[in-house]
């Protein structure tokens, strides 16, 4: 009831309060100057200028929009605004007093005392409004919450500060802060928002106060640091959750709504991707952008990332109805001026793709549509040829015909010295963009990287399903390793590579250190609350056709060119690039062979086109040394 009354008469109530406070400060200034007894000769000044002072301040307060401020959210900026408007009012009063009465015989200190008292009292009144709404008003609501979770925050830094503020300022929050822990020894014993930093992370299990959950508020922590934090959390036996890492945060901001369970992505955390947003903005801002495979892992993240750079249109193509619906539904909830156009279509259908290009005239194309599951493509190589090569050529030719500015092919590390059809078709697609770039006004580039965490059909979701079912977790070989990066990081670097540009180039993304698949399995089992080989067995099934023990990032024929971005390199191939006429003739022959649905013929012809392709399940022997990471060489340079 009080809230309704306050909302209805808010403006009038605030003016009445301010009139009283200004009157009190005016009276207080006289009292303080004359030791609480106003001499009779100054009483006329007091009675004459009191209503003038109040009137001028209220007039200026109204004209400046002072009463439009939502005072329940008072911050430092609102207090600065109070100083500004009160100062303006006193400036007008002093000038008026000088013209009307002059300063002869009148103590100037009264103006100074009045000013400080007015600023102080009005500021205190606004702070009280905030304190009331954030604490006292919500007290009854808080009492109604029977099971508020007592939490300890790991990290007394910027993110911990923000989460703590949000908890304190949310009347119906389900959380109650107990304290902080932080690895910085200088913070131990300090307080943040009235809550103490209780000690080091490793001391979590020895804390004496009662708590229910632990929240990791360290988005900048590395994967190794997160592993150590998780180990300390598990020692307490309590539930622990986290806020996302910086790579997941497009706008680099966090809130309570983002709190989630710890995932394998957290164990992989790497250095924050620093983007040259100006160059990406020049590439995308106001442009018509087309993304194929827009409902897939990389494609959907490219849609999200592109939206932050305000393209005029996003044409989202996918052949999966459910995936297309999901990304369209998600983008509709994002506030943006970008026009989203979902298109249900297949890149192998050139007539349909031509209609899309003709109607929308895209300026930037990101081609992420592809078949990517190695074992399935080994069994159905004709499907890989038609989609990965045929679909790419369709998009290439249409981009050239309709004068697209930049075409970006999303490639894979499996294209390097390929041993499977999937890798061979992606390598051939790279050759196609290099070939057409020689004759086209469009800039054609490819971006090559390894596995991404969370993509459909990848090892991690497969392992998680096996763990949820009670095991066993199946791995093909104990020595198998792969490069991994998060989907947001891969997508951000694709945009950055596109902004760097340069037709015919293959860009290589920094993948970090290769990770053994068995280590991933063990980490996931422990994250699920089990112990590997005790609760959940690990079974080795043997390498499948087309699998390597490890992937490579560059072939022996490719030279590395460093870029200004520490996570992006350019691969320059010394071999002569095939002319586009010859490339089309060769790929047309490949399509005819694919129509016969004969696996060996397809592999044989791919071998003719790609001498470095070794079909038949060849893989690096266990004794072989893994390839040198070119980014490690860059770091030493």
Brief descriptors of the model:
single chain; 637 residues; alpha/beta; Rossmann fold; nine-stranded mixed β-sheet; five-stranded mixed β-sheet; 21 helices; 47% helix; 14% strand
Task: Describe this protein's structure.
The protein is α/β, with parallel strands linked by helices and 637 residues long. The protein folds into three domains: 2-142, no CATH class; 149-267, Rossmann fold, CATH 3.40.50; 277-636, Rossmann fold (3-Layer(aba) Sandwich), CATH 3.40.50.720. The protein is 47% helix and 14% strand. It is built from 21 helices and 22 strands. The chain has a nine-stranded mixed β-sheet, sandwiched between helices. It has a five-stranded mixed β-sheet with strand order 2-1-5-6-7, sandwiched between helices. Strand 5, helix 7 (223-236) and strand 6 form a beta-alpha-beta unit. Helix 4 (76-100) packs antiparallel against helix 5 (109-144), helix 12 (350-360) packs parallel to helix 14 (381-401) and helix 14 (381-401) runs parallel beside helix 15 (421-437). The longest helix is centred in the N-terminal third of the chain and has 36 residues, at 109-144. The chain is elongated. The model is unreliable at 618-625 (pLDDT under 50).
């Amino acid at each position: 009831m009080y809230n309704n009354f306050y909302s209805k008469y808010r403006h009038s109530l605030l003016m009445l309060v301010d009139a009283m406070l200004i009157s009190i400060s005016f009276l207080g200034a006289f009292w303080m100057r004359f030791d609480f007894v106003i001499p009779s000769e100054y009483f006329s000044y007091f009675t004459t200028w009191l209503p003038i002072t109040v009137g001028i301040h209220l007039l200026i307060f109204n004209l400046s929009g002072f009463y439009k401020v939502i005072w329940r959210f008072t911050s430092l900026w609102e207090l600065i605004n109070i100083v500004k408007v009160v100062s303006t009012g006193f400036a007008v009063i002093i000038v008026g007093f000088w013209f009307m009465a002059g300063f002869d015989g009148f103590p100037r200190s009264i103006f100074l005392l009045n000013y400080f008292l007015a600023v102080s009292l009005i500021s205190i009144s606004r702070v009280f409004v905030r304190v009331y709404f954030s604490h006292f008003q919500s007290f009854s609501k808080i009492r109604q919450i029977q099971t508020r979770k007592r939490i300890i925050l790991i990290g007394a830094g910027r993110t911990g500060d923000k989460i703590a503020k949000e908890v304190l300022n949310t009347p119906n929050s389900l959380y109650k802060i107990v304290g902080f822990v932080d690895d910085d020894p200088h913070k131990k014993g300090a307080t943040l928002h009235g809550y103490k930093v209780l000690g080091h992370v490793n001391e979590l299990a020895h804390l004496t106060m009662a708590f229910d959950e632990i929240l990791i508020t360290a988005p900048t922590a590395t994967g190794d640091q997160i592993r150590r934090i998780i180990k300390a959390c598990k020692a307490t036996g309590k539930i622990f959750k986290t806020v996302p890492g910086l790579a997941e945060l497009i706008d680099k901001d966090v809130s309570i709504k983002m709190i989630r369970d710890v995932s394998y992505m957290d164990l992989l955390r790497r250095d924050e991707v620093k983007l040259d947003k100006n160059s990406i903005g020049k590439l995308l801002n106001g442009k018509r952008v087309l993304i194929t495979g827009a409902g897939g892992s990389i494609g959907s993240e490219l849609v999200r990332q592109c939206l932050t750079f305000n393209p005029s249109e996003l044409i989202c193509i996918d052949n999966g109805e459910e995936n297309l619906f999901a990304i369209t539904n998600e983008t509709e909830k994002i506030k943006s001026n970008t026009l989203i156009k979902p298109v249900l279509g297949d890149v192998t259908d050139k007539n349909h793709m031509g209609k899309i290009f003709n109607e929308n005239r895209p300026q930037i194309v990101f081609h992420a549509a592809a078949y990517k599951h190695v074992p399935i493509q080994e069994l159905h190589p004709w499907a890989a040829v038609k989609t990965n090569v045929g679909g790419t050529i369709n998009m290439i030719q249409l981009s050239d015909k309709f004068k697209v500015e930049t075409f970006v092919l999303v490639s894979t590390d499996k294209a390097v010295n390929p041993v499977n059809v999937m890798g061979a078709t992606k390598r051939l697609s790279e050759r196609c963009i290099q070939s057409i770039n020689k004759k086209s006004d469009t800039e054609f580039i490819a971006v090559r990287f390894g596995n991404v965490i969370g993509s459909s059909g990848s090892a991690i979701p497969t392992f998680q399903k096996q763990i949820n079912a009670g095991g066993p977790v199946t791995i093909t070989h104990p020595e198998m390793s792969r490069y991994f990066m998060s989907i947001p990081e891969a997508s951000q670097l694709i945009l950055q590579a596109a902004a760097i540009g340069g037709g015919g180039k293959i860009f290589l993304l920094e993948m970090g250190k290769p990770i053994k698949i068995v280590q991933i399995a063990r980490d996931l089992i422990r994250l699920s609350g089990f112990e590997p080989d005790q609760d959940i067995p690990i079974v080795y099934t043997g390498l499948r056709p087309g699998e390597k023990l490890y992937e490579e990032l560059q072939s022996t024929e490719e030279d590395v060119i460093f870029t200004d971005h520490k996570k992006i390199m350019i691969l320059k191939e010394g071999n002569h690039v095939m002319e586009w006429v010859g490339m089309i003739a060769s790929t047309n022959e490949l399509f005819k062979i694919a129509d016969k649905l004969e696996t060996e013929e397809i592999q044989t012809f791919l071998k003719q086109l790609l001498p470095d392709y070794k079909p038949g399940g060849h893989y690096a022997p266990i004794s072989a040394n893994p390839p040198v990471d070119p980014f490690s060489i860059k770091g030493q340079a």
